[in-house]
Amino acid sequence: xxxxxxxxxxxxxxxxxxxxxxxxxxxxxxxxxxxxxxxxxxxxxxxxxxxxxxxxxxxxxxxxxxxxxxxxxxxxxxxxxxxxxxxxxxxxxxxxxxxxxxxxxxxxxxxxxxxxxxxxxxxxxxxxxxxxxxxxxxxxxxxxxxxxxxxxxxxxxxxxxxxxxxxxxxxxxxxxxxxxxxxxxxxxxxxxxxxxxxxxxxxxxxxxxxxxxxxxxxxxxxxxxxxxxxxxxxxxxxxxxxxxxxxxxxxxxxxxxxxxxxx
Amino acid sequence: xxxxxxxxxxxxxxxxxxxxxxxxxxxxxxxxxxxxxxxxxxxxxxxxxxxxxxxxxxxxxxxxxxxxxxxxxxxxxxxxxxxxxxxxxxxxxxxxxxxxxxxxxxxxxxxxxxxxxxxxxxxxxxxxxxxxxxxxxxxxxxxxxxxxxxxxxxxxxxxxxxxxxxxxxxxxxxxxxxxxxxxxxxxxxxxxxxxxxxxxxxxxxxxxxxxxxxxxxxxxxxxxxxxxxxxxxxxxxxxxxxxxxxxxxxxxxxxxxxxxxxxxxxxxxxxxxxxxxxxxxxxxxxxxxxxxxxxxxxxxxxxxxxxxxxxxxxxxxxxxxxxxxxxxxxxxxxxxxxxxxxxxxxxxxxxxxxxxxxxxxxxxxxxxxxxxxxxxxxxxxxxxxxxxxxxxxxxxxxxxxxxxxxxxxxxxxxxxxxxxxxxxxxxxxxxxxxxxxxxxxxxxxxxxxxxxxxxxxxxxxxxxxxxxxxxxxxxxxxxxxxxxxxxxxxxxxxxxxxxxxxxxxxxxxxxxxxxxxxxxxxxxxxxxxxxxxxxxxxxxxxxxxxxxxxxxxxxxxxxxxxxxxxxxxxxxxxxxxxxxxxxxxxxxxxxxxxxxxxxxxxxxxxxxxxxxxxxxxxxxxxxxxxxxxxxxxxxxxxxxxxxxxxxxxxxxxxxxxxxxxxxxxxxxxxxxxxxxxxxxxxxxxxxxxxxxxxxxxxxxxxxxxxxxxx
Amino acid sequence: xxxxxxxxxxxxxxxxxxxxxxxxxxxxxxxxxxxxxxxxxxxxxxxxxxxxxxxxxxxxxxxxxxxxxxxxxxxxxxxxxxxxxxxxxxxxxxxxxxxxxxxxxxxxxxxxxxxxxxxxxxxxxxxxxxxxxxxxxxxxxxxxxxxxxxxxxxxxxxxxxxxxxxxxxxxxxxxxxxxxxxxxxxxxxxxxxxxxxxxxxxxxxxxxxxxxxxxxxxxxxxxxxxxxxxxxxxxxxxxxxxxxxxxxxxxxxxxxxxxxxxxxxxxxxxxxxxxxxxxxxxxxxxxxxxxxxxxxxxxxxxxxxxxxxxxxxxxxxxxxxxxxxxxx
Lengths: 263, 710, 328
Known about the structure:
Number of domains of chain B: 4
Number of helices of chain B: 29
Number of strands of chain B: 8
Oligomer: heterotrimer
Structural class of chain B: mainly alpha
Helix content of chain C: 25-40%
Order of helices and strands of chain C: EEEHEHEHEHEEEEEEHEEHEHEHEHEH
Largest sheet of chain B: 4 strands, parallel
Strand content of chain B: under 5%
Strand order of the largest sheet of chain B: 2-1-3-4
CATH superfamily of the largest domain in chain C: HUPs
Largest sheet of chain C: 7 strands, parallel
Largest interface: A-C, 84 and 94 residues
Structural class of chain C: alpha/beta
Radius of gyration of chain C: 22 Å
Shape of chain B: elongated
Strand order of the largest sheet of chain C: 7-11-6-1-4-5-12
CATH topology of the largest domain in chain C: Rossmann fold
Number of strands of chain C: 18
Radius of gyration of chain B: 31 Å
């Protein structure tokens, strides 16, 4: 089975405080370290496990710049057979739709039975997988937490829905799936493994090689643009409630409702 | 000489009929033994290299201390004393046995140097030796059957009990002693009857007893019994010789070698591959132990040498807490695997993966590397290197528990397991209140100092542990140390990174830190973290000397630079918990105790497991992130020991011990009844700040002579 | 202003709470307009759903088809593309269904895609200004969208106060005929319910988390009752797992699970570093602890010094009272 996994290099923000830059146009990125988007990593692991059982190969691709090659190499150290960088000046500042268009052109150049993405990246948009599928006219399933290969033409997938329940569907190949974290236990990639793939060639494809229409990418094509970042005001330390037990409970309830805590 | 001739005259006819048989048994026995040993050597020849031929004098010293001197045995009194007796007996009996064997072929044989008077004394000694060994066998059998020491039990998951085999061997040795004694007794009895010069048996020894019983038997009977005894002796001797390599008794032959080749530098780990430098490591296709043949020959010798005494597992904190690891069975399983895969007849098996088959991954990740097992083992079997090698193999294969992947990744990208930004490493020193008292210098090309305070990750980033850093800094200040910290340039020491098998990441951290330390130009290093201490001292190379803060305080107390105020509350009972990497691994036991004893009003008790028998708190570094399967927390067991000792304050000198113990106090439900404090914190609290040399002079200048003013 | 549609999800005829929130969101986009609800399904359940939605929307488009008995995003997308006029704005809740439907829908409608909207500042001509979150909720962003050719927008559940206007009596219009035959490359088989004890706390937006202050295994029930009333999951700190009062999968912390809820109730949790390390995304934290000096109060948004064994039942009662009022 030929599997393509679309990965993204994202800032590692888990334990680091996000700070805004002076004018709020972006976050401070100087001291951030970048790594592969976590759900994408799960997707690569899933692809590797499928190929280990059925044969085939795993290709990882990312839309980005030279700096993002690092993320491709890490996934290759994990076991992916090929890494491809999709980079071009024209691609910069594309919105999700633009990125999906670039990926679509790459998919069309090859013959992939299965295309995987992670559920969402740091922008929480969860969009590229669904858009890519629609552009390719492939069936799509999001929030996939289990894949079973029926035969060469179909998969059985489980989607994570509310309350921990699972929605089981059959999906035709070729298809696009967006993978949820926890689907498997990704193998560890040590420094040694990464160094071992340091010199494996990673081809770069640009606008021309992919045959992407210039009008569909870049800032001009973007329909959704971020104006600025801001941090909602948050006080230091807790606001201590000092009423009676009943009053405090009322107040907590009010706050829960306001913060979307009541379903 | 006369006795010898007369003795041989007696023996010759009795044994003559058996000569052919005896010779045949000799040849068969030796041939079998040689074949068996050769087969046992096969896997060792295929094994990885191990450089153990250096420092012959130091190694001989160890042989004298641990093999001949049985140094570790008395740690378990009953079994220890018994074994010393048995061992001494065997050593003494060795030559006698040899002589006896030859006598069957050449009746006049006398061991060179053991003729005449010396021979006599030797006879007496060996008579008693045989008796003592015989009695020990009886006692050992009874002990196994009736008293059943817990450490010999075999948990169901590790297979059948070893009792039957143990008793079988004990019985055989008893038979050997009996056979030998019978042989001697019949000779002595015959001599008494024929009124010859006495070949006497030592009074009240086993041979003597048998002689007394047999003294009135006919010569013919004696002759038959002598022959029987001799044959029994020879057969049993060779049977044991050939049977030993199939079980725990192989240690009789291998122990000398195992001790000789044992590790000299205990503090650090073996290289990934002996003879392969760090730079060359990248070319190696596979690292770590994945199959049995990936072990080194010395590790295989360890497996052969295990006496199944169970002392290691008895002291293993992971085992006590119900984790899947039992060091004893790590060895026994490997030994059995070797016997199976390399049988006496037939082809040797190919390397199959060990993890998942022989060992579970959890078994190997469970180890805290505390070293209690290695400390106990009378045969100096090594464990930590094997565990680390197995982990190296798992890391190489990407088989790492999810709980460890996050901190490892954070160590790679941020140089600390918490993923915190480098620039925050010095934040502990920027606490406002603290800065009034103490301004911490960050070392770089422009700012130097004599001493580096290496803080390491947990002390720098954990809110609770930062107070240890501040206390340490204040103490260093107090003794007038010109020190600084590396701040953002300091990465995790990598101590646990290495011990969890991520050698490449460790080397990256190490190289970075060495570079930073060297460019700071410091001449001394101090740390309050025993793991960092151990890493800087043993895992790193070419660094200035490293000290732990407890040592600094102890020297300060000795020189008078540090004096303590009396405790406000003298009702508390304190106990000191020896951190594994300060105590057992680096033998720093007395300095922390001296510091505590220098605090006026401090009542201190010892827990039942202290010093080199200290019970690990549960592990530090990456172990804090691992989720073991266990029945209870190791830390809780330790806190209960403190309570049993009558203490209500546990003092420790390691931030990881502090985390585990404070946590355990809560889990054990002892919050409010038991507290924990770090040695540096306590020392800093009690520092008598007014009494400085300068201060004393000032006061005496102001006061008239005769009054102290205080 | 383009026409606004709200896709309504329902289960066994019971309409999701987000229906009212979408109506509210629609009014923020176009205060003078009137959104249309679209409900798909089959049979009595569909009828019940349409009926339930009428008080909130002036027009309810009903699409009935046996193939739509279970909400399949691909089939529904194909249906919507057939009936929704070009340039329209379609709102869906940002839940597992919205994530499945909306991105692909935006492509097929050739419209903008705006996911997981928190606030809508308003529309000015072809531009719609909204607020989203990024980096797991650590920062907000003002986002401007070009809606000149329409938009597919997913709304964060609970972010918009539900529309309380139940005086509307929407007209139900049947659009089933316009949809035609629908096929999809993905076919629903079944739903497998989560095993009891298989609750994945990392996927819950609201957690009632207990620490040692719960004191006893039997008291866990107090937390479970509150969680049940709130629609939350129970999680805990390490000591509770060690004491074997809850299973390991419930543990939040650096050696437990990392959770990114929207709201976190820390009950009897001291707030140790190792525990807090497992809470990401800056949730709204309410801390209840007997100890006024507990470190949790440094990081919580709201703090109450009280015994959780007394406070939680009180809170549970209040929640139940509120629910029973809302249900009327």
